[in-house]
Design goal:
The structure holds two protein chains of two kinds.
Chain A (H helix, E strand, L loop, with lengths): L3 E6 L8 H11 L8 E2 L7 E2 L3 E10 L2 E10 L17 E3 L6 E3 L9 H5 L6 E3 L4 E3 L5 H4 L12 H5 L5 E5 L6 H8 L16 E3 L10 H4 L29
Parallel strand pairs in A: 1-11
Antiparallel strand pairs in A: 1-10, 2-3, 4-5, 6-7, 8-9
Chain B lengths: L4 H28 L8 H23 L19 H24 L5 E4 L5 E3 H25 L10 H26 L4 H27 L7 H5 L6 E5 L7 H5 L6 H28 L4 H25 L13
Antiparallel strand pairs in B: 1-2
The chains are: A alpha+beta, B mainly alpha.
């Protein structure tokens, strides 16, 4: 069985909101649209978004780390929002595990949003129905697009490739490998919702370079030359006053 | 959570309606076994009309909660999994049985179907009343389970939620029955007021039990589990929107803690303490219609405050992601 999902690398996300913008652009004019804004140019602008980037500061100054945290529907494998829906408008597709809302059946009772611990669902104030990330279901199966284009809008937009997209049930997929090899984890595992979207943790990356790694001390083929060094007699920067 | 007045009125009004039906049928059952003098058919018919008024009021209030009320009929389809869907099925069924119960009394079409070994007659209304009682309790369970089944909202995820819905609705229904009897059947005032007093008292105990339980709850989700970052000190800097969103509107009551505390004391006094004093007066003194009206009105105000508090107190784990606007 297929379970499509996003894997978001918190080590790479720079918080540029390109995924938010491209998601809104694609979906407001696509199958899941419109995503209407209220007061877009006035005080307290608000509107429907499927994806938001939040920022958290971890640690105490000066030892802090800034975490940019993109959050959209996690397409849980056991989605708590689906069984509570009284009309069957919320459903999880068997073929690819995407959780969707049937806009024609939704009555806007907001019960599913209460049942989602992640706050992934938003009521559209204009259409008065519940909306959420569709994993760009109208893109990823569009045969008129190239393979490269047949990925969610947020993934396409990400300039740092912090967002990966694929089938987490296929052990050989890019996302499965990323989860396996880079410590991918789920949000709020305590509720047993088993979110399909995973996050890759921040990593400490330090590159230690010793001199013998730049200049091979053994120099087996005697090909490597030595890097030029200043003459002992040359004044160093802290010797500028010496002459 | 943000308390929605549509849901507050829905749950309080239908609760009173269900309680009133239970009160009317309790009196009829007592009479059938000779424990109370038989009531007139018009007492039950008019009382049932009040039940239907309460239920219809709640039903109308519920539509204000929906974004697309014209599609409300679709809610009856998912009864296999959704308590909300089950409630939507049970409510009209209960209204239907209540209507038939009222009609059987009002039209006098109430033949004896069979007789119990003890000699007590079983009328059409006894059968309808039993069915109505089952449905009234089923409706209480559905309403309570809508909230109790959400395991993330830990303040609600407890059997006490269902018990409270049953007891609070029944208490207000019996209080209304006592008020109603003060005009139509003064002999029954003491019976209804006595039961209203007892049920209000048990309801108070069970509501206080849930207050104590909720005060001791420790949040299961933390910012650490919400982000998957184990550091003890995490501060939110932005939430991805400057002017708020559905997430900031729907899940926060937006009132300071002092308001929450005062509402708690308000409902403890108005839903329980004051009505119990007034009902107690009605059971010892001769029928005191004004004090019974006061008891019912105060209890209604108290129960509306109770329901407001019920929603406001529940803290949704999604709020962890929405702690600071910037």
């Amino acid at each position: 069985m297929t379970q499509l999902a996003l894997v978001i690398d918190l080590n790479v996300c720079v918080g540029c909101h390109a995924c938010v913008t491209n998601c809104k652009e694609w979906n407001t004019s696509g199958l899941a649209g419109p995503m209407v804004d209220q007061n877009p140019y006035g005080k307290d602008p608000t509107g429907t978004f499927f994806n938001r980037v939040q920022t958290f500061e971890v640690g105490e100054f000066p030892n802090t780390e800034t975490i940019h945290f993109p959050k959209s529907c996690l397409h849980c494998e056991d989605p708590p929002c689906v069984p509570v829906c009284p009309t069957g408008a919320s459903y999880k597709r068997k073929e690819d595990g995407i959780v969707l809302v049937d806009y024609d059946k939704c009555i806007g009772c907001k019960y599913c949003s209460w049942a989602c611990p992640y706050g992934a669902r938003e009521l559209d104030e204009h259409q008065k129905i519940m909306k959420k990330c569709t994993l760009c279901v109208d893109r990823i199966y569009d045969k008129t697009m190239t393979d490269e284009e047949r990925r969610p809008a947020c993934v396409r937009a990400c300039p740092t490739s912090a967002r990966l997209f694929g089938d987490i049930h296929d052990p050989e997929s890019e996302v499965s490998k990323a989860i396996r090899e880079a410590g991918g984890y789920q949000l709020m595992p305590e509720w047993g919702t088993s979110p399909a979207n995973h996050y890759l943790p921040r990593r400490k990356i330090k590159l230690r370079i010793r001199v013998d790694e730049i200049e091979r001390a053994d120099n087996p083929l005697k090909i490597d030359g030595l890097l030029p060094r200043p003459d002992k007699a040359e004044p160093a920067l802290d010797d500028v006053t010496s002459w | 959570m943000k308390p929605a007045f549509s849901v507050i009125f829905l749950t309080t009004l239908i609760g009173t309606g269900q309680g009133l039906f239970l009160a009317l049928f309790t009196a009829e059952s007592y009479a059938a076994f000779g424990l109370l003098p038989p009531q007139t058919a018009s007492f039950h018919a008019a009382g049932t009309a009040f039940v239907l008024l309460f239920l219809a009021g709640g039903l109308i209030a519920s539509f204000f909660h929906l974004g697309r009320p014209e599609r409300a009929w679709r809610t009856a389809t998912q009864w296999r999994t959704s308590w909300l869907s089950r409630e939507v099925i049970v409510l009209p069924a209960f209204m239907g049985v209540t209507f038939l119960y009222g009609m059987a009394h009002g039209l006098g079409a109430n033949p004896v179907l069979t007789t119990l070994p003890s000699g007590a007659p079983v009328n059409v209304t006894a059968v309808l009343g039993t069915a109505g009682t089952v449905l009234a309790f089923a409706l209480f369970v559905c309403t309570g389970m809508i909230y109790a089944c959400l395991r993330f909202l830990r303040e609600w995820h407890s059997p006490l939620t269902v018990v409270n819905y049953i007891l609070l609705g029944s208490a207000s229904g019996f209080t209304f029955a006592a008020t109603y009897a003060a005009w139509t059947a003064p002999g029954l005032v003491r019976f209804f007021a006595g039961w209203a007093l007892v049920i209000s008292f048990i309801a108070m105990l069970s509501r206080i039990a849930s207050l104590v339980r909720n005060a001791r709850l420790k949040p299961k989700s933390t910012l650490q589990s919400a982000l998957g970052i184990k550091h003890p000190r995490i501060v939110q800097k932005t939430q991805g929107a400057m002017g708020g969103s559905f997430n900031t509107r729907e899940f926060f009551h937006g009132r300071p803690q002092t308001v929450l505390r005062s509402v708690k004391w308000f409902f403890l006094v108005f839903a329980f303490a004051l009505p119990m004093i007034l009902l107690g007066m009605a059971t010892v003194a001769e029928a005191l219609a004004p004090s019974l009206i006061a008891a019912f009105i105060l209890q209604c105000l108290g129960l509306i405050a109770e329901r407001w508090f019920f929603f406001a107190q529940a803290s949704h784990p999604q709020n962890l992601y929405y702690q600071s606007v910037a």
